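To whoever picks this up:

The nightly regression suite flagged UPF0235 protein Npun_R3528 as changed. Nothing in the input moved, so I suspect the structure step. Input below, exactly as stored in the fixture:
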Amino acid sequence: MQKKVKVKPNSKQQKIEEQPDGSLTVYLKSPPVDGKANEELIKLLAKKFDVAKSDIRIKSGLSSRQKLIEIDRDV
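Regenerated output under the current build:
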């Protein structure tokens, strides 16, 4: 499964909002430095979709706020 994700680093609280178009807006506490925000994003998405962190990959947008995430789910 692939999801478009818009990341908002340096937020006061962590939360995930699903948009009407199916994309996600993810608010992260971590700053976008040294991959910390990406690590936090993967942890949050793994918890939300109930998968291992290793099942989530950032396909594009590694250094951008707009990302394409791939989630491997065994359903």
